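ugh ok fine here u go
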Amino acid sequence: DLPGAPDAAFVGVNRHLTIEVVKALAERGAGGAVCFAAGFLETEAYDEDGERLQAELVAAAGDMPIIGPNCYGLINYADGALLWPDQHGGIRLAEGGKGVAIITQSSNIAINMTMQKRGLPIAFL
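structure:
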């Protein structure tokens, strides 16, 4: 029911519905999506179902970029753009401000890093 294609979307539904939503977003021309659902190939002991679902997710996305699956998303404190489902302690950078970029596998580590009050400012997570 959106009037146009979103620049980006946070997809927070189960793994089967994630494929449908990602396909619909790609068909609409969305700019990208964060896939929060788990149960694809990211698990250590994936099964044939996870392998099949991973292939379906990639096919559904087509040329549309996706982050995930089983991903918390991203925080851009430089521009104030967040696709993140949980609390965080960071603040938007002042215009022209600089900060570090962090890539981590763990959302818990990411959240904890945004809550710190010492160290360098964070620009991207």
